[in-house]
Amino acid sequence: MKAPQPSPAQLAAEAERLSRAGLSDLGFCEKDLAGAAALTWRINALKALRKAVIPGHVYQRPEILVGVADFVGDSYKLAKLCAESKASTIVFCGVRFMAETAKILNPEKEVLLPAPDAGCSLADALKASDVRKLKAEHPGAPVVCYINTTADVKAECDCVVTSANAATVLRRLYEQHRKIVFLPDEWMGRNLARELGKKVGRDLILWNGKCIVHENFDAASLRVLRRAYPGVKVLAHAECSPALVRLVDFVGGTGGMMRFVRGTSAPHYMLVTECGLGDFARTELPEKNFVPMCRLCPYMKMTDLARIESALAAPKPAQRIEVRPETAQRARRALERMFELTEG
Question: How far apart are CA 274 and CA 278, in angstroms?
């Protein structure tokens, strides 16, 4: 499908839209805006022709989030909105496990991943065979997996969680079970154990996976920055180390971090997570002051506007997400259990 071309007036209007949406405040010059505008205009035209929807994770590039994304959020929000979408095609701006989740929840729809090599260190840390072994070692214990896992792993689990709802889901499961297996993020698991008053190795069985972004933040630099910015509110993602989490003002997922910033007043905010959230926060909340404390995820940044246009115009086989029906059916049960325990 060939994309229509914008007129000079349409291109100028699109560049102005992107500027007003916050890209100029992020350092986009006139040339950058013009280049992005040509792509976003064509993508939005193709999206309408294909009856497609574009969900964008908050770690994506800002020109994607303000330029072409139909909804933006964390993993839980995107999973819910994809399940509710009426679009015939989902072009997922995120990483592979997210696109797989969208396909599991929408088996009848076409799901495209513009950057098919966009993986995740946590998803790579665990195989389905590892889960089966743990289930044999801990019979009767429910296996809860973080959403940052492959479809094959989700199919072996009893319930899925995100950083936004993990504590809520585990609390409800502990009402009926003495022991839970939580996979694959070790640090998130240790943070949850501390929050819930559970003992690692006895009440909560963990794996040794870690996020390549969040494992590199350290508590020492946080102490230095607190002295440099008096009154700063520090927010950390739940994938950060327990040593760092003990020093922050808020810990949770990206959605919770944004709600905290919106609902409080402080001279500065520091978002200890992937840099995309900081860019998104600056476009959404230009009146707030943000202190840089972030790292780039190489997988999240694989997606760009050119790849999105290519996926919409003529998707390659590698960009089409497929999940085996039997795997999808079992994984869907684990995802639906998450929705039940979170909202039921």
Answer: 8
